[in-house]
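User: two proteins, same treatment. go.

Assistant:
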Amino acid sequence: MKLKDKFFIFSLISSVFTAMVTHAQVKTGIDMLQESNFSVLVGKRVGLLTNPTGVDRNMRSTVDILYAAKEVNLTTLFAPEHGIRGSELAGASVANTVDKSTGLTVYSLHGKTKTPTADMLKNVDAIVYDIQDIGCRSYTFISSLGNVMTAAAQYNKEVIVLDRPNPLGGEKVEGPIVRTGFFSFVSQFDVPYIYGLTVGELAGLINNERPVEKRCRLTVVKMEGWKRNMTFRETGLPWVLTSPQIPTPEAAIAYPMSGIVGELNAIQIGVGYTLPFQVFAAEWVDGEALAKAMNRLALPGLYFRPITFKPYFGISSGHPVSGVQIYITDYSKAMLTEVQWYVAQELHRMYPNHDLFKLGNLKNYAMFDNVCGTSQVRLQLTKRYQVEDVLKLWRGDAEAFKVRSAAFKLYE
């Protein structure tokens, strides 16, 4: 390729990226906070829970924005799973550290402790939360928010949520609420697996439904221009990977389609390849046959294409695997979380000697059950591997939750 051609392509990419950043239709909470001259933070010692997704529409870090603002006294930083710079692997313990650019102490909320202590909050009056979430209950950033709210209530601190879009939109609600005995850091609240709220709306629901003595002083800095039916691409905002395996908004949408079955460690779901959460594949699968089987089901809004690839790491690393890639043809009709149950059904029918619940050699199914919010999904599905056996349970809470959460919605 000639140098001038390379330069043209680079210029085109740069111009598209610049347009995406500077002409955003939606203003997030950090954008609105700046426009208000940080009014809700004036006179307060501020702690900040954030990660690399905490940026304004011009890609400036919320850490740098608050630290540089003369109206703000930023004293402390807090790190969620993956760390404040996003460099840690899923589930890895994150250590306390010092932020190089500001010199501020960074307290980990995904290490020895997951809830801020009195010592961590001694120089804090208000805790600001600014993290891009992906709208699934098992994604631990909202659990960290819940723990911050608990500590704030205990130590009389304020929580200020800088709101951001839900990449799954504000209309999808799927999966059961968490049953007694299955609350955990990946299912901390009794909400459906896909809950259809922004993080600010979710915080309002969580806070209001707690006993009065356990509620914190909560402020949500609302977005401007966001609509419930928006895809993330339609917001005009830049996407910053929310964790190492969610590099795009499309991966965020795919996460609930395969992530629960992924907990079985039995089949390649694209983690370890270029399509995280967007495929189901194995060395023992005929991709053409599986694609035909899945498409015969005529699942609304979905299409399955055969695919063969070699994962770079993870399950079947370096070995050819075959399976299906998921395409969404009508997002409004697609039932995201149910895809994995239908794949499990068809794989068991085609390959009865390859039981997904045995291939991973798990000693127990605690993580799978906790992510589901109940053991009954596993117990009912594995009786005869028919999705119809779990649909009543999986769909049963959605409509009631839509009614329950309506009072906390901040956007149309």
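Protein 2:
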Amino acid sequence: MTADGRISAVERFSRGRVAVIGDLMLDVYLWGSVTRISPEAPVPVVNVRKRTCCLGGAANVMRNIATLGGKALAFGAVGDDISGREIVAGLGEFAIAAEGVVRAPNRRTTEKCRVVAGAQQLLRTDFEDTRPLADDLREIMVDRIVRLIAAGELDAVIFDDYAKGVLDAWMLRRIIAAAREKGIVTLLDPKPKTGGVAPVSGLTVLKPNRGEAFALAGMNDDNFTGVPEENRALREAALRIFEIWEPEFLLISLAAQGMVLFRRGELLRVIPTRAREVFDVSGAGDTAAASCTLALATGCDAALAAELANFAAGVVVGKIGTAPVLRDELLAAVRDN
């Protein structure tokens, strides 16, 4: 694909209407400096200068949809707490429709707090409740998405699973069935290593990273460092995934080796990495999911969608912290290559 073709594809992102359903998180950063070691224990003392927070987990996928120019509709759960209110406020800052966000009063909003000194992350603390979300709240979200699909108001649905208790296989099955009737794109970013949803069939795209792909296949990662085309274990993992999940496409992120795209178990394309400098891989998978889905939802074929996802991930790993890719940044990246 020429640079002009990629640019035209990115410019069409503004037509995409994408519902994202999954585990909403708040990413908190405590920024400071270290000048001494604690007298109480051999640990650094961080003098915190500021606190920042941003959308994380499925909310970061939503944010990427918005910053890439698409329309994002949020579906997930928050608790009746400060973190939950910060997430809802953050969605509003990016004009993300939050009517599908349900409140679970007896549930803690997921918060991941990172302590950073200079450019070095020293510690992360997690506050979360991973119990299954009540089915009545799940029904509310599923019914809303199915109605939007029936009304022709969606072009795609992303399932973003961080195994925090929001998603369940029956939810995916109902939404996928409705989406297939209308020709709507569906993508799942899975988390099999920490639980995650049980296998479902009929997805347009299943998008694991390397470790997740081997986990989905029930295989040990061979840690192959050669070219992906020669990795027999990776091909075997892909075949097993297609047998179990039956997606239309399988897009596997391979970090420094780029991405590989499979269709019906056959290797369709290897996309080399586009990252120039890697500062932080936080959120790269979210960015790839958002850009790939927007591309498919606005008329790109799977190969071009995967290529644009790779460009977008290459941009975001050059940033520190959980950050989205902006539409103009992606346009600049595809224009320069």
